[in-house]
Amino acid sequence: MSQFIRLTMDDIARLANVSKTTASLVLNGRSAEYRIAESTKERVLAIAREHHFQPSQSAKTLRSRKSGTLGLLVPELSNFAHASLAQALEPLCREAGYQLLVMSSNEQASMETAGIEHLLTRQVDGLIVVPCSSDATQYLKWSLRLPLVFVDRHIKDCPIPFVVTDAIDAVTSLVVQAIAAGSREVVYFGGQADLSPSQDRLAGYRKGLELSGMTEQEHWVWQRDYLRPSGYSMMAECYERLGHYPDSLFTGSLTLLEGALAYINEKQNGSPAHLMTFDDHNLLNCLPWGIQSVVQDSQRLASESLVRVLKLMQGETVDSAWISASLHQRP
Amino acid sequence: MSQFIRLTMDDIARLANVSKTTASLVLNGRSAEYRIAESTKERVLAIAREHHFQPSQSAKTLRSRKSGTLGLLVPELSNFAHASLAQALEPLCREAGYQLLVMSSNEQASMETAGIEHLLTRQVDGLIVVPCSSDATQYLKWSLRLPLVFVDRHIKDCPIPFVVTDAIDAVTSLVVQAIAAGSREVVYFGGQADLSPSQDRLAGYRKGLELSGMTEQEHWVWQRDYLRPSGYSMMAECYERLGHYPDSLFTGSLTLLEGALAYINEKQNGSPAHLMTFDDHNLLNCLPWGIQSVVQDSQRLASESLVRVLKLMQGETVDSAWISASLHQRP
DNA sequence: TTGTAAGCGTTATCAG
DNA sequence: CTGATAACGCTTACAA
After folding, report:
1. Residues B282, B304: Cα–Cα separation, whole Å
2. Which positions in chain B touch A122 (Cβ < 8 Å)?
3. Least packed by Cβ within 10 Å: which of A246, B97, B104, B262?
4. Which pTM was predicted?
5. Do A280 and A293 meet the contact criterion of CB atoms below 8 Å apart?
6. Which helix (H) or strand (E) element contains residue A70?
7. Do the beta carbons of residue B148 and residue B160 sit within 8 Å?
8. B218 inside domain
9. d(CA A323, CA A312)
10. Strand partners, B127
């Protein structure tokens, strides 16, 4: 492709009648530091502007051994929570002088592995991952090779720092509220039981029951995965088991809620009085039920995880963080 | 950061007792081509595997003048349509041997400019953009510097190839259906009138009216932007002007629909009998109205735009494409 | 205040 | 079949 040509710093230097060094110094804003003559500086800058000079990032990276990129690996970009995270993280990275590389693992451990290896090849300076496996050893190996932070999910007993939503408290208060409002039967639909968010959400649910002096009954807790059809089938089976809809239903994700509502709409045989879900979406405002939802703070999830990779990159050690969520209450 | 070390190809070569050249050949799968001894090959590969050798992408890029990356610039990652596009594009790029760099412009022309310049610095080999300005000259300049394809939106009279949804036909049939079902008043809410998708959607609406022998009345077409509050205010003003809800309402985006529904839910004074919207979401299944929606084919939008940048990168000229959308009908 | 020269890790050319 | 050696475009001691 010679159709698209680029000028190099050498070219700029030649055109401005200075050496590579001078050009480099000026173009990197270090002219003051080296007391480059104002006139020289202006000349170089003018030429550079005029010719749309773009320094080669690869040469910089090669020389400086820093790529100026950070990687973000999420299971699904079409998952609203993860998309919001990427959306929030991208400008923050740019401000911090880094380019964000976003990849998705499609919720498959194998693709995740490939993705991380790929990002390593690309020499990302740091990595933020929403892990989709719970195999700590694998991640530990990577964490020896580059700064690694988990976000949204963490792995039990794994020393890699993480930034996750404090689901427990949020879910607890939701459950407590529902019971205070008169619910006597509170059912929980969740996803993969081995994922940390699932565990946290379930723990929150159980704590809510406990605080309200209620004892968990058989067929109150259902766990499968976060796919829509699972929401549908759990609702179907739950209805069949109980013989009616529970007073209250908490779903661990929007997709599960969608599945459950699909069943409810299809059967037209009633519905739970209280609906609660993890994660929020504006369309929830438009539903005929007043759904209570837990809103994750993707802005803070993003900034806190960025701060942590940046610190790791400077050799500091960092702690993990629980980001509190807020509730979106609907009448 | 000496904490995280990497082996270079030189190291591998030394450990395997071969030269850089041989190591390079083997590691790039060109051993057959150069008839490298099987034993040598195995030795090199074994060492490389054992030491987790990661070739430096920057060195490769520098030498080969190809970065192996493609850029995707979207206005908003939290917009479902754009997120789906990114999600669909990313694996395709990887299959094609490219790493996708996703950036978002926040729907601001200035950020878009900065983003493109940034990607140029990163030496992306090609660029796929959802343009957020309609200034053709600017984009034309860039298209001289690297292969550029528009997706989702195009710019009138701009020779840059684009891949967009064929909104006209889809919207037309939606409108025709609504009228066939008895609607006598069909209102249109749209976003920025200067964006091509807006124009197409409006054109589809008008064609639908025309085909049904209906004449557009005053206060039937409302255009502002695609933000949620605009949907709310257009609904409010429309209701006030007409004195009632129209039989049918078409919204140009989910956000506008959300806004309109927020008004409707808040006032509890009725609602349009037919609701239609551009773009689809699973939560639409859960609404108490049977909303008809236009489903964009993000998979094809992604693959067709990728094909086009790849062709441009090989110096071929390419045409634009309209991707047909499907309808998601709900009872 | 500016220039010279030595790499960074690869790939490519050309000899053995 | 394998090995020197020269770029690629940039940064940075070290000179001048």
Report:
1. 25
2. 57, 99
3. B97
4. 0.86
5. yes
6. strand A69-74
7. yes
8. yes
9. 19
10. B71, B148
Structure tokens at B184: 């006598």
Whether residues A13 and A73 share a domain: the answer is no
Q: Is A235 on the interface with B (CB under 8 A)?
A: no
User: Between the CA of B34 and the C1' of C14, what is the distance in angstroms?
Assistant: 14
A159-197 pLDDT, tens per residue? 999 999 999 999 999 999 999 999 999 999 999 998 899
Question: CB-based contacts of A100: which residues, under 8 Å, 6+ apart?
Answer: A69, A70, A71, A72, A86, A89, A90, A93, A94, B102, B103
At B133-157, the pLDDT tens digits run 888 999 998 998 899 999 999 998 8
- Our count of domains for chain A comes to 3
Quick check: A285 and B288 in contact, CB under 8 A?
Answer: no
A74's tokens = 């999420």
**What CATH code is carried by the domain that includes residue A77?**
3.40.50.2300
Cβ of residue A9 near strand D, that is under 7 Å? Answer: yes
Question: What single-letter DSSP state applies at residue B283?
Answer: G
The residue type found at A215 is T
CB B315 within 8 A of CB A1: yes
- CA dist B55 and B108 (Å) reads 37
A52 CB neighbours in chain B (<8 A) are 145
Measured between alpha carbons, how far is A175 from A192 in angstroms, rounded to an integer? 21
Which amino acid is it at A201? R
SS3 A162: strand
